[in-house]
Amino acid sequence: MRPIIAPSLLASDFANLQSEVEMLNNSQADWLHIDIMDGRFVPNISFGFPVMEAVKRFSKKPMDVHLMIVEPEKYIEQFREAGADYISVHVEACTHLHRTLQQIKATGAKAGIAVNPHTSARLLEDVITDADLVCIMSVNPGFGGQKFIDNTYRKIEGIKDLIIQRNSQALIEVDGGVNLQNAPLLLEKGADALVAGSFVFSSANPTQTIANLKSAK
Fold first, then answer.
1. Which residues bind a divalent metal cation (predicted)?
2. 135, 139, 148, 162 from 151: Cα distances, Å
């Protein structure tokens, strides 16, 4: 199966956001990945609801929303109303993770769990069957353009084994430092979806770069 490609709008040209979204509409991208940062869970601030709503007006692709925020449960319904199709919350930010996943599903969105590089896959054992997506951070969250962390390969294998053991339907998404050099091994280890920001938007031909990632094997 060909991978799901989710370009991250965090690396796009914000001054020309409509044209960037339209470029993605006309590409082989499957999802639009949107990073929400609050300046508390991560040391950066990004999009808010008005920008998400604007993107939704132009986007023809599902919106994959990654919440890098504290107390995400306070905003789930609002993100869904702003257009989120997938909503991923960090295990490190959720005191009641199971409840938050059920809250996401109650809105009609797909529920995702995001895990930081230092977080063990074992923490997902009791909730893996409640997740539609596991977003593995292959860089430290908060900034684009970081170097890929090699331990990600081992973590993918661990989460893939857990998914199989528990008969979960969750997809595995890898976020951070993805490129054509590491994409084939990420897919071989069990990744289903690849998030790429700087690698796509800083390339000479983003549409072709997306196509190349889509064909990675």
1. 33, 35, 66, 175
2. 15, 10, 9, 17
Q: How many domains does the chain have?
A: 1
> Do the annotations mark residue 83 as ligand-binding?
no
Which pLDDT score, from 0 to 100, does residue 147 have? 83
Q: Note down the domain range covering 55.
A: 4-214
pTM for the predicted model, two decimal places: 0.96
**75-89, 94-108, 141-155, 168-182: range with lowest mean pLDDT:** 141-155
**How far separated are the first and last CA of the chain, in Å rounded?**
10
CB atoms within 10 A of CB 2: 12
- How does pLDDT run across 70-91, given as a tens digit for each residue? 999 999 999 999 999 999 999 9
Please list the active-site residues: 35, 175
Question: What is d(CA 150, CA 102) in angstroms, rounded to the nearest whole number?
Answer: 32
Rounded-to-integer distance, Cα 9 and Cα 13, Å = 8
Burial 178-210 (b: 16+ CB within 10 A, else e): bbeebbeebbebbbbbbbbbbbbbeeeebeebb
> How far is it, in rounded angstroms, from Cα 159 to Cα 142?
23
Q: Picking from 39-53, 58-72, 79-93, which range would have the lowest pLDDT averaged per residue?
A: 39-53
142 belongs to an annotated ligand binding site: yes
Tokens of 36: 């929400």
**168 annotated among ligand-binding-site residues:** no
118 in a known ligand binding site = no
Q: Using CA atoms of 200, 153, 64, 205 in order, give the dihedral in degrees to the nearest 10.
A: 10
Consult the annotation and say whether 59 binds a ligand.
no
